[in-house]
Each structure stands twice: as C-alpha cells, then as structure tokens.
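Input sequence (215 aa), recorded before submission:
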Amino acid sequence: MKKRILAAVIALMGLGNLAIAQDAPVDDSSKWQFRLRGIVVTPDESADIEAIGGDVDISTAIVPEFDISYFFDDNWSLELILATAKHDVEAIGTAAGDIDLGHVWLLPPTLTAQYHFTGGNFVPYLGAGPNLTLFYGVDEGPVADDVDYDTAVGFALQGGFDFMLNDKWFLNFDVKKLFLNTTATVNATTALGATVEADVDINPWIFGVGVGIKL
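Predicted structure, token format:
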C-alpha cells in the first residue's frame, strides 16, 4: 500500500513539473538589436568669443547613423550610437565682421541607458547617457591660419519609439538632445594679428528615422 501511495505521489510530482515546464514562459527575447538611421543634426549653437566678440553659426548636417543595443531584459538596454558629421563654421557679428572658419568633422560616440515601455507593436523608450566628441578633419577656411577644437565630454537625452513589423524587423523614430561644449582656438595672426579663443556651445538636436533588426 505504501509503495502504491509513494508511486502515485511521484507520478503526480512528475505531472506537476511537466505542467510547470509547459506553462513557464520561454525566454526567446532578443538580446541584441541593430538600427540604421538617417539623422538630421541641427546645432543650437552659441559662443563667447574673446577680444573680437560676436557669435557662431554652425551648419546643419544630414548623415547616416548606426547603433547597437544590448537588452538586459524586456525593458532595460544600453545603446551605443555611432555617427560622424561635417559642419561648416562661421564667426558672425564680430568686430572684424563675419569670419569663415571652414569646416570640421565631429565624431560623437554616445552611450545611453534606455527604458522601453513594452506591450505591443508600438514600443516607446526614453534614454540618457554620456557622450565623447572628437573633432577631426579641420579645414580652417580662407582667413584663419589654424583652428583647433578641444575634445569634449557631453551628455545626451533621448526619446523615441520602435514599431514592430514582425518578430525581427522594425521601424524606428528617434530624437536626441546633446549638451556639448568645446573651446575653439583660432590662430588668425596673419589676418587679425592675434590668436582668439572661443567658448562654444554646440548643443545639437538630432532627429532620426530608420530601420532595425533584433537578433
């Protein structure tokens, strides 16, 4: 009798474990996500230019952007944002008039922590994180002998949403505000007889639209 009871208990335990295994959610969520966006980088610029005064004008740029995300769970992820953009720069309203300062390339890798609001095909998210901006490929223009931009550390705020087309592919809409400041040193000894420093706030808005895939 005891053996029959024990066998029945073991059988029930086995059935219970099987039922739990069948009901338990399968973790089929994608840990990695990749996006390719087209972005519009619109500086919200201002400058404090020593000696000659004035302000700065920095052109808008339209470039591709690639990003990589890693998901810790359905809600939390880290996103590394990679892009580079070329901007024309001009000092305006100075004591020496408007000065063409050529162009500069910006490489601003940005890492944001994101929270995703799940619940359907429409997946909005918010993010924030640090930025490191490198300046390269400087063309000083027709007036200055040389222009140097200091490497800058900034901060980004982000919002957007993914719209799932199927289990893997989705559309993405994204906006970021980057708080970015650099010191520009303009060597204009030939034209102005001086080297001028400027404290420049670039602070661009970055608007993006693209497509992504989950792997």
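Checked by second reader. Confidence is low (pLDDT under 50) at residues 1-28.
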